[in-house]
Amino acid sequence: MSATDFRAPLLVRDPAKARGRRRLALLAVATVIPVALTALFVSALGVDTGSGGDDGGKSGSGSTSSSARIPAAIVNDDEMVTSTTADGEEQPVLAGRLLVTELTDPDSDAAGGIRWTITNDEDAQQMLADGDVQAVLTIPKGFSKAVVSLSSGTPTTAPLKLRTDDAHSYLAGTLATQVGDGLAASIGTQLTEQYIQGLYASVGSLGDGLQQSADGAKQLADGAGAAKSGADQFATGLAQYTSGVSQLSTGLGRLKSGASGVSSGVAQYTGGVSQISSALAAASAQLSADPLNPADQQAVATVKALSGQLAQVAGGGSQLASGASQVSSGVASSARGAAQLAGGGADLNTGATGIATGIGSLQTGAQQLSDGLADGAAKIPASDSDQAKDSAAVAAKPVRVEVTRDHEVSAASQIVATTAIPLALWMGALVLLLVGPRLGRRLLAASAPATRVAGALLSKPLVIALLQGATVTLLLHAGFGVAWDRIGATLPLLLVAAVGFTALHTLLSARFGRAGGVVSLVLLAIQLASTAGLWPVQALGQPFQALSPYLPFSSAVMALQSAIAGGPVAPIAGAIAVLAALTVLCVALTPLAVRARRRRAILALV
């Protein structure tokens, strides 16, 4: 019996059983694939599913949110300034240090789930360029000064500078920007509260100044009242003084007239007395010479004449008495006028004192009013309408974040192409696995060497892969708007990626046949879970972070992102090296896969 006779029964029985087992295996794999892929992606992104325990699902199984693994650098260039409090005391202000402390506190909500590292400007830029951090937040030199200025008449916005790099991640920059905006809003709210508190404190100080002004105004009123009372007393005393002066003038007139009468009477009296004296002297001489002379009659007549003269003298004496009376009356009037003058002088003195006191109170009150108004004015910043608008704008948003994106990629098509093109090349290779040359029974039964069979399997798919790579490169630049000067990076990368993916799928086809398509999908899922690009690689779980640079799909995505953004060459060169190594390895293993398939087919026939 020939070998064919022994082989025929086996070909009828064993292949059917083998196909049945393969179908059952494929059905089992198809059943668990959705659950497996879901668990794969959830674990890759480190998403906390929570445990529903007493902690409210905050910690769950103990894993942390993926955003907490995103590294970022913080640079504090701020300098200390001093601020004068309402009590006049100076206190240091270190707003930058307070912000750094808040961000680096692991228990603080201000960190936004980002792992902040304190460093300097030079190291931060290098870390960002190397992809070790996804963002750099710089607190500039005048941050504290700007914060303090909110309480002054010329407030300025406190700046923060945030720098990201699209060559490493698109979403990291967006996330960092959102965190920066959140920081600006949070800090701005606190500063606005302080600003409003300062306004209320200024209003309180203004009230104190106005109260002081009111006290001064009251003293002005009191002083004015005292001055009015003194002025009234002064007017009364002045009236009395005028009346006394008038009476004194009248009395003095009378005294002058009386004095004239007295002078005349005294003159007459003196003359009469002189005559009497002379006559009496003569009569006395005659009588003495001849006392019995009959001529005594003449002496008697003389004496009579003297008696008449004495009567005239007596009349002059009456005039003198009348003049003396007039003098006495004038003196009395003068005395009364003088008394009135004395009384009016007291009133004048009292009134003048009251006026002086009132004027002193007016001066003190005016000074207090001036001081109070000046103090109140000092509490209110002087500003015009434009300055008031600027101050209001600063108070509404006292902190701003200036975002700078290195190697910026803003076109959505280019962002999507970063992942879509490598995925398209992978799917193109999968299609070639399904419709391209297969290691069928004819090739398995052929006597050609395994290397030759492998060459037949690889030749056409690799040529098609080169065409695929060139086509998507043209689409990337002509259709998606990537600058043509970057084709020196994109073309080699995509050609090697297409060839590497196709070589891998040819190896899977040679080893597993059509089942290699299932293996391809599983590998694709693992690589998608380990791929950065849209999100930073640090957002992945630790095992996936370690695998990401060495997986062909994920390395192609990261390299294409850098090439599109015009970023560093190192990721591109690294990816080309990985893909080239993959191509060489797959080409080298394909003949071994052919031999293994032949050996399995022979064993199935025995």
Largest sheet: 5 strands, mixed
Uncertain runs with pLDDT below 50, 5 residues or more?
1-13, 49-67, 198-204
The helix content is over 70%
Round the mean pLDDT to the nearest integer and report it: 73
Number of domains: 3
Arrangement of strands in the largest sheet: 4-1-5-6-7
Strand content: 5-15%
Kindly, what is the distance between the CA atoms of the first and last residues, rounded to a whole number of angstroms?
15 Å
Describe the structure.
The chain is an alpha/beta fold. It has 3 domains: 66-203 and 381-406, abc type-2 transporter like fold; 228-355, Helix Hairpins (Orthogonal Bundle), CATH 1.10.287; 409-605, no CATH class. 72% of the residues lie in helices and 7% in strands. The strands form 2 sheets. The chain has a 5-stranded mixed β-sheet with strand order 4-1-5-6-7, sandwiched between helices. β2 and β3 form a beta hairpin. α1 runs parallel beside α12 (516-529) and α10 (450-479) runs antiparallel to α11 (487-512).
